[in-house]
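Lines hold sequence, tokenised fold; shown next:
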Amino acid sequence: MPRVLIRFPGTIYTVDRAVGRNAPNDRLDVLLVQFLLFLSTNNPWWDLGKSQSTLTVRPGMRAAIPVVMAPTTFRPAGTHPKPQGGIVIDGICGDQTIGFIENFQGQVQLKYPGAELNGQVVPWKIMGALTMAMLNHGLPQGANPPLLDTLGPLPDELWDSFYL
């Protein structure tokens, strides 16, 4: 069952048991991960594959070296492409959900080399829980449970599982 940890300065959402490849995949936990992945994949902050490949120079400044960086060829070998279409929030952890988890973990690896790429989202505060932390990091500041339905398609079943 998903959990909401209300701590200052924000709210943390976490699963009770792991979700993804070779995991228990409890329905409510899967719904939470799918919802957070939906929000993250629609957040341009995480779309590192389309990040700018040029540096800008302030007006009036001159650059002593070229400011165009090489094309982004530094992707880790394990980076997975984003699955076609949007993620379906249905509570079933199949190939599509695992593909989105692995794609998200690949994007996290671009920012934090050495992050896990195992196709699993584990509960908050467990070793290897960087994926759960980064899914929470992608939420807008102050994304308390009453505001979640304004961010995206929050399933009623997931909302009903939060004890507030």
In short: The radius of gyration is 18 Å. Confidence is low (pLDDT under 50) at residues 48-55, 63-78. Helices lie at 27-41, 95-111, 130-137, 156-161. The chain has four helices and four strands.
